[in-house]
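anyone seen this seq b4? input:
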Amino acid sequence: MRNSNTNNWRSTALIAGAILTAGVVTTTSTTDVHADNSQNNAQVSNDQVTYDQVRATADQQLAQLQSANDSKEAQQAADLAQTNAQINQLKASHAALEQEQAGAIAQAQASTAASIEAQTSAANAEYQQQNEATQRAANDQQYAQAVSQAAENQQAVADINAQYQKALSDAANTQTSQAQAAANNYNSAVAKENDTYQGKLSAQQATNAENIKNAEASLASATANANKPYEVATTNDVSVTGRVAKPQTDFKVPAYVTKYGIHLEVRGYNGAIPVSDYTYPEFANTYYGEYPDSAVITNKAAESTPHDISEMPLDFQPGLLSYDAKNDHSEKVSADGLTADQVQVLRALALSWENGFRNNVFQNYREFYNVVNKNDGFVNVALVDLVSTDFTDNIANQVVANRTKYNIDNNSHTVISSGMPAEATYTSVINDATKNLKKNLTSEFNGKTVYTDVNENLTTMQAGTPTLLNYAINLYNSMQGMYYGELVNPTHIGGHAVNLLCAGVRTVGIGFQKLTDEMTAKNGSGVSDRKNPSYAVTFDHVGFNIDHDANLTKEVQNRNVWGTATVDAQLNTIKTAQYHVNKVPGTKTVTPTATDVQKATASEQQKLADVKAQAQQSLDALASAHQSSLNKLAQQYNDAKAQVKANYDVAVTKAASVCDAALKATGVVGLQAYKAQLDSAYQNLVKADQVAAQKLAADRDAKIANIKKAENVKLDAKINELVPSVDPQIKQLQDQHQAVIAHGDAVLAELKAENKAAYNKLAEQFNVQLAAIQRRENAKRANEVRLANNTVVLHSAVKVANDGNIDTVAFPTASNPLQAETTGRVQTVSAPSIVKTATQTPIAVAPVVTTVNHAAENAVKSNESSAPVVTQTTAVAATTNNGTQTSVASTADNKATKADNSEKSVVKAGTVAKKQTPAKKSESSQKVDQSSMSIVALAATALLGTLGITYSSKKRHN
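predicted toks r here
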């Protein structure tokens, strides 16, 4: 607060000094055309002397003011430091004393607490005693009143009460007598009911026991019967194995060769058959089966001789069968030849034999099978059985018809070379029958090759005896030579065996062509007996191989595209004859199982369960009836007791009524009314007791509060005695410091008043000098003429000083180093300079006087306080319309406004505030001070402008 006020009067002093400096500078910017400058130099010398004198005086005044202010500020700072030091010393002394007296203070506090506790306990005890005494006195008084009243009516009440008590006693005796009678009746009835129930229960239990015994006996009998073994009718499966001829394999080839003297070929065969090297000895005699002469087979073993078609083997193991006409039980074949049914039987047998050969070679002579199928994708791949269907039967029948038509014998295949056209050959017949199937397969397997596997085998069948069995045996032996006989060649497998082993074929059409006499008579026909019909038997095999892929080929073979089987019935008849199971009726002994016994005795077990359930139900019914009777007796007994109680209540009520009437007659209050009065009196007593107790409690609480207050006052006095308070001393120090501050404010007001008087005096002097300068300038310009860029002064009687080039004149600067600081100081932008101009009436740039006000530092404890803000003030020179500058003087009220110090610092207890908030000027007060200084600055600027002095931060060149 002190620094900010000091700044205010310092600013005023500096501005005043600047005005004085400007007031003694009287120069002009015009140029005289004459060389005579003696008058001008003399004038400048006089003015300079005056300027220096005024400047010295101003510097001296500034130094004195600053010194006085600095002394006051230092005095206040020292006073504040001393005050705070004294306060801190008092506080430290007080704290030390508190620490020193801590034990005594604690002892005083404990003593006070003990005293309060003792007096409080005494007050509570006194309250309890008073409360009980008050209630006891009230109760005793009420009791005495009741006794007194009772004494007054004692005899009358006693007589009436005696009568009342007698009536009650009579009623009670009557009640007891009636209750006992009711109990006796109840007990008698219950005993009778129990006896009746027990009799019925015993009888029912006996009946139940008998019924259960009979049911158990019945169940035991049924169980015994159910456990007995028994005979039942049954049908036994009896396996029947028919006789099946076995091919003979012990025929000795060397003996046959020796007999006939033939070594390398067989008699009667058209062409030589190489003798086997007997790699497989079981094949040794098979190729002799190609010849129908039974004499060739000299060993006619019984097991190799079938007696009927049913005894023909269905498999096809290597070896020949022999024929015994005497034991031939088969059907006859007429001279016209085989019937259609007989042909189907032979087809069935031939089909089974072909499949037997294929499967036997694959299973047991795999090398032959693999040689045949090595290029067809079926090496080591099992083949699919051949089938004979209506499809293949049609093919076979057509082949037979074509052969008959073109007279083809039993030594020629159904081919063109046999003397038949191409459309009649077996291949033509097969292709025609399978063309649609092949077309579909070719389309389905587009991109793959569909191979057609077709071939034909041919043999001769004849019989010496016209029976179906003889034909069958002859066909069997012929097929042995045609298939197994061709496996014995040392260099290659015969074509018939190759055709049959081809895995790509799926069906076979077996045809039976009846030979004509001309055919059988031909040399090499192989027919030895022409009495009975002979047949050329054709085996036309059909199938497709899909791109030599076994999987694709077998998938097509298993499709349902080959027709319906036609020989299953014939094969099944032969199979059944060779093996079947007969159902033979009989009996068997059955030993019942536990389950059987359980089932057989289920009804008896249920009967026993029912008897037991009925027995329990009968007992439950008796118990229920018995309980119902007891409940009824109990209800009757309860009703009797209720009636006895009701009778008693009536007698008691009547006795009370008689008693009340007697009391009323004698003027005595009734018992019920008297009881009500006593109850009311008791409630009133209770309320009175509560009010008294509350008052006593309030008195006790007030007494305890006073005890605590008094004891605490004593404690505070004791503590103050032990550790006296320093607050009064601290308050005295604070008041003394505030007095110092108040004295500083008074000095400041005095300084401001002095500054205001000095300002007024300086302003008056300035106005006088300004008027003189203005008159002189007007007289001088009367003889000036403007020529181009120069001003010409004409000759006149009065000589006017020509300044010419005027040196720069600097404003005085503060000699005190503190004024160089930027905190709360007045700074000029730069020293003003007098510049020669070429214009007749120059327009000077207004000087800018800038007051920079920063927050002043507070010297007390190095804490800063905010100083009032003095805004920048700019002096502006007014310019008239004709281009001449005129001074602007203000007559506004520029009285100094005393700072408002009414707001005092808030001082905390025990110390002087380290940071004081300065009393701020009001906004209007600040504006008044600023206006006063601005008026002086404007006046000085007008004077400088008139003299041609430019006050700027830069020199201006024209």
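The two ends are 49 Å apart (CA to CA). Confidence is low (pLDDT under 50) at residues 1-44, 256-278, 289-296, 796-958. kinda curious what u guys think
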